[in-house]
Design goal:
The protein has 252 residues and is mostly beta strands. It folds into 2 domains: 3-87, Immunoglobulin-like, CATH 2.60.40.10; 91-191, Immunoglobulin-like. The protein has one helix at residues 197-227; strands at residues 3-8, 12-20, 25-31, 34-36, 40-42, 46-47, 53-60, 69-75, 81-87, 91-99, 102-112, 118-123, 126-128, 150-151, 157-165, 174-179, 187-191. A hairpin with a 5-residue loop joins strand 14 (150-151) and strand 15. Residues 1-84, 90-190 form the Ig-like domain.
Length: 252
């Protein structure tokens, strides 16, 4: 059961495979899902005192943003292939969570490897606290309750960082920033306060009702103007219908 670890360097990734027995396996690399041989070196099997072996492979590469670099181990005993480590950039998303009047912002990072990641919150461009993958507590700036990256099971990791947004932050902009070895520059996502989903729905329904009423009024007005005035039976003058025996010809 070999284990694997990628140690990031400037442009060189190291895949360390341990607990090998018997000494029969190959180590290869893929970049963005395609096998690569250029820049790859494979060391010999190195014995341990417990009769297992270690093998190291290196690749010199500069991953582009979004590229996934994987170290792939193929066992010679059963020809089984295992991806032991990834070099994958994180994905970020900010999710607001409201409990009564309190509002919390959770920044989720997932799909990244190796596990080393730095998550920070910014408020109006200023860093809140100085923390690595922590959970910010009851108020903005409280750096209690640290957390860490957790394995997902597919070779990647996930992490999250949370802040409680105090009242009076209307108009402020909150930003989650991620620093990871696979990124050439920090990854950022932004969140700004807006209308609640319920209030947004009410506003949308009010606007829809207003537009529908305006449409009906316009349709009725156009129909009235197109038909014109239709006199009543027996009407001999515009606006006046004489009664039987009426001889008055003047105007009212």
């Amino acid at each position: 059961n070999p284990g694997g670890l990628i140690v990031p360097g400037f442009t060189t990734l190291v895949c360390l495979v341990e607990n090998i027995f018997p000494p029969s396996l190959t180590v290869s690399w893929t970049v963005a899902g395609a096998g690569v041989a250029r820049g790859v070196t494979l060391g010999p099997f190195v014995p341990n005192p417990d009769l297992t072996f270690v093998r190291i492979s290196r690749i010199s590469v500069t991953p582009r943003p979004g590229d996934v670099v994987a170290c792939v181990v193929t066992s010679g005993k059963d020809n089984a292939t295992t991806v032991v480590a990834y070099w994958a950039p994180p994905q970020l998303q900010i999710v607001p969570e409201r409990s009564g009047p309190a509002l919390a912002l959770v920044c989720y990072a997932w799909g990244f490897s190796p596990a080393e990641i730095t998550l920070r919150w910014l408020r109006n461009g200023d860093i809140i606290g100085d923390n690595v993958g922590d959970t910010v507590g009851d108020t903005v700036g409280d750096t209690s309750g640290q957390t860490r990256a957790l394995p997902v099971g597919d070779g990647t990791f996930r992490a999250q960082v949370t802040i409680q947004v105090p009242p009076g932050t209307s108009g402020d902009t909150f930003e989650c920033l991620a620093l990871h070895p696979s990124l050439e520059e920090p990854l950022r996502v932004t969140w700004a306060p807006g209308l609640s989903p319920r209030l947004s729905l009410m506003v949308a329904l009010a606007v829809l009702a207003l537009l529908l009423g305006l449409l009906l009024f316009t349709f009725g007005l156009c129909r009235y103007l197109s038909t014109g005035y239709t006199p009543l039976p027996g009407d001999t003058r515009a606006g006046y219908a004489p009664l039987p025996g009426d001889t008055y010809a003047g105007s009212i």
